[in-house]
Design brief:
Distance between the termini: 21 Å
Structural class: alpha/beta
CATH superfamily: Dehydroquinase, class II
CATH class: Alpha Beta
Helix content: 25-40%
Number of strands: 7
Order of helices and strands: EEHEHHEHEHEEH
């Protein structure tokens, strides 16, 4: 079952929410299909959101939409459940905390990272270095399309450290990034 742990800066205890359980169609599957289901549920993905994303729903809804980050995390949990993947969602406004989470991802049993670095996309070589050194593949996601916005947003420091990038699809960018990462993990297995 996919699980979302919303973790934010400031010592707040993570709140947990589970996606609704799916039907137990596994009992109708053949042996090979059961092995594939077991293999698919082995993936753990860390979903990170950077500065100001905790303000979604209030901050420039004409650009970022009306959904809150917590609502997007719930959509990610449902998508993770569909993919047979465990997800953990975290948000921080602090570059160093994001760097630490990325650096610890592999040791904490995560197989990949989906990251929306927010404004750090355009400035953070520290995140770039952390993603390169993480030892797990990552996908950069953005709610809006940075390349269609102000000139300073058109350069990503972090994308070259990622295996892919999804932008401009609103909350679906996170879901498409997760789906692409899980597909890549499955091919690499």
């Amino acid at each position: 079952m996919a699980r979302v742990n919303d973790q934010k800066r400031g010592g707040e205890a993570p709140s947990a929410a589970s996606a609704p359980p799916r039907g137990s169609g596994a009992s109708k599957l053949g042996t090979a299909a059961k092995r594939d289901v077991i293999k698919a549920t082995a993936w753990r993905v860390l979903v990170l959101s950077g500065p100001n994303l905790h303000r979604l729903g209030k901050r420039q809804p004409e650009i970022y939409g009306h959904q809150t980050l917590e609502q997007i995390h719930q959509l990610i949990a449902v998508e993770g459940e569909t993919l047979g993947t465990s997800v953990e969602c975290r948000q921080s406004n602090y570059e160093g905390e994001l760097v630490e989470w990325i650096g610890a991802a592999s040791e904490q049993g995560f197989h990949g990272i989906v990251i929306n670095p927010g404004a750090y996309t355009h400035t953070s070589y520290a995140l770039y270095d952390a993603l390169l050194a993480a030892g797990v593949p990552s996908v950069e996601v953005h709610l809006s399309n940075p390349e269609a916005r102000e000139p300073f947003r058109r350069h990503s420091c972090t994308a070259p450290a990622c295996v892919g990038k999804v932008a401009g699809f609103g909350d679906a960018s996170y879901l498409l990034g997760l789906r692409g990462l899980v597909q890549r993990l499955g091919r690499a297995a």
